[in-house]
Design a protein that fits this description.
With 320 residues, the chain is mostly helical. The protein has two domains: 2-42 and 108-318, no CATH class; 51-101. Helix content is 81%, strand content 0%. The chain has 14 helices and no strands.
């Protein structure tokens, strides 16, 4: 255990003091805070009045629109109604019908926030994986890994690397959550966070982020260990990159079909897929906390299998 903690401490310090980590964390935080500001603009109608679209109409289109407005006014006059009375009646009837449909709340700010979280998680895991792979190749090229393996097992070395990287990633997630709180203040706690249980969402986000770091970082380290130079490492980790891209894009483009039992089951309960889809769908209210916990348990159970494969490949490659 002592060896694992020593390696974890070394990896943690190397990661958090690197320029890429500091830069990416600052950029992520700025993006999150910016979402709150953008949402205020969206919620206020974008700050544009209705005269802007009229400037973009050609002569014929404007003439047709004016004719329609005139026809509407004449019909309202025949029925003894003003436009305000008509709009009030339509609005009241529309609200009555919509209330009967029992629809879930779905606002643009909520969806924007959810997809931004998905993208930030993907970028964060990719950056961490790339740093893991470059560190493994550097140690192998300098024969440092042989010295380390003479003092500890490959399991201890790989475990320490992943734990250190996960702890650094956790700090990044905490900074992002602090930025979320700032974004809430900017947006007045309205719109973008409506329907999102921030307290439990923070737990879900952190847990799936940790699972993602452990799962993908172990694979990045294992596949990078088969390379002898940074150039070869980029090719060696391509299968891991593809393994990330498939669930990432599936989560993006199959959201509309998540109610399908098969597609929803893959997105929400299949390891690798659930890392991205559960935080997104939980923020949108598509899945419940209990469903998220079941998915998390499945992903955690899969970690020993992933780690066993990664450690075997890592050991065989670094000693070859």
């Amino acid at each position: 255990m002592r060896n694992i903690l020593l390696v974890a401490k070394r990896e943690f310090k190397t990661r958090i003091f690197s320029k890429s980590f500091i830069f990416s964390t600052i950029v992520f935080a700025i993006l999150i805070v910016a979402i709150g500001g953008i949402n205020v603009i969206i919620s206020n109608g974008g700050g544009f009045d209705n005269s802007i679209p009229n400037l973009m109409m050609d002569t014929n289109t404007k003439a047709i629109a004016d004719a329609n407005n005139q026809a509407e006014d004449e019909v309202l006059q025949q029925h003894g109604l003003t436009k305000e009375q008509f709009n009030t009646e339509i609005s009241s009837k529309s609200e009555e019908i919509i209330a009967g449909l029992n629809l879930k709340e779905n606002n643009p700010g909520n969806i924007t926030f959810s997809f931004m979280i998905l993208i930030l998680m993907f970028m964060s895991i990719v950056l961490s994986g790339n740093q893991m792979s470059s560190g493994v190749v550097e140690e192998k090229s300098n024969s440092i890994v042989e010295i380390l393996l003479s003092a500890m097992s490959s399991f201890q070395l790989l475990s320490g690397k992943i734990i250190g990287l996960a702890c650094a990633g956790l700090i990044q997630i905490i900074v992002i959550l602090i930025a979320l709180v700032s974004s809430i203040e900017i947006s007045g706690g309205e719109s973008i966070f409506n329907g999102i249980p921030i307290d439990t969402f923070g737990f879900v986000l952190i847990m799936f982020a940790i699972v993602g770091y452990i799962s993908f970082s172990s694979l990045y380290a294992a596949f990078a260990s088969t390379a002898n130079s940074p150039t070869e490492a980029q090719t060696a980790v391509t299968p891991v990159a593809i393994l990330m891209l498939i669930p990432f894009y599936a989560t993006l483009f199959l959201q509309g079909a998540s109610n399908n039992p098969i597609i929803g089951g893959i997105l929400h309960y299949c390891p690798f897929f659930s890392i991205f889809s559960i935080p997104l769908d939980y923020a949108k209210g598509v899945v419940t906390l209990n469903q998220s916990l079941i998915s998390l348990a499945i992903s955690i159970i899969a970690i020993p299998i992933i780690f066993w494969f990664a450690s075997k490949l890592y050991k065989r490659s670094v000693l070859s």
